[in-house]
Amino acid sequence: MAGEMDAPLTVLGIESSCDDTAAAVLRAEESVVTILSSVVMGQAELHAAFGGVVPEIAARAHVEKLDHAVEASLAEAGVTLGDLDAIAVTAGPGLIGGVLSGVMLAKGLAVATGLPLIGVNHLAGHALTPRLTDGLGFPYLMLLVSGGHCQFLRVEGAENFTRLGGTIDDAPGEAFDKAAKLLGLPQPGGPSVETVAQAGDPARFAFPRPLLDRPGCDLSFSGLKTALMRGRDALVAEKGGLTRADRADLCASFQAAVADVLAEKSARALAASRGVTAFAVAGGVAANAALRARLLDVAKAAGTRFVAPPLALCTDNAAMIAWAGIERFRLGHRDDVTLAARPRWPLDTAAPAMLGAGKRGAKA
Ligand code: KG4
Ligand code: ZN
Whole-prediction pTM value? Predict the structure, then answer.
């Protein structure tokens, strides 16, 4: 293909939908894409005392940090606003105060420079990342597993997603975070639980495998957290406290239940998605080694390639937003100052609405 589609593009991406303030600059030439910079400013310390992301605190922090993130990303990339071809910004779904802060900044920059503005769906950013990192062709199956998201998507095009299933309550990362809180382990819970689980017996506690008895690819994680709490309370009632081994066994059994459920539902999603080029994962929970090993096995058993982008591009970042912006730009999409910030923005508008909007914002 030739012409406008292959014209080199330098695009600024802006992300502020949850608890990371991020900006990145990407350059796309022909089929080669280079991440010139990717700045992520976290807010973990601001929310640490509250056991979850506090929307008002997040919004205020985004307002304070966004300018700095954008300046740093331009400086690191060695470009100025005048070198850019477009500005891509997360326009949803997410915590509305944060999304608004990013969208307002992007509009201001677009108006000041005359550059095209491209609103990007945060979930599309995650879902299209394997094309940035591994050049995946459509269609492929994506499992998004993070603190705020959990869904299976058949990615057919940069603006064409079919949701095969998702969580009906908590996201897995949220479940890991709550599990850590119940056991007095530090946040974020995923890495803490995984570390403690290494010394544990995954078979000691028979935690439930929610929704495995039901057909389809929907998942549920809130019951697991309750089961973990009951297991903990029974031990405390019996012995007055938890030993190191108890804690390790609780973590290992919890993690095994999450991995079992995700592996089985992934197998089902793969069986339901003929002709895919790969099975890809994204989101912070994809960092979990035990889970990754299980998902790799599932892909192997189905004869499908398994792709997990590097962790820095699996978790929230703005490089994925700039990339999704480039994909939309190439399809001719342009926004203007009427671009709306959306707390909810399902990727697959034909799929039934998802239930629940956890601490980390709407799950779309
Ligand atoms: O994608 P992410 O950085 O942010 C969003 O939620 O969008 O994901 C963060 C989540 C947290 O809930 C964290 O506990 C979880 O990912 N996580 C993990 C691991 N590392 C991070 N969960 C399980 N095992 C891990 N190693
Ligand atoms: Zn995310």
Answer: 0.91
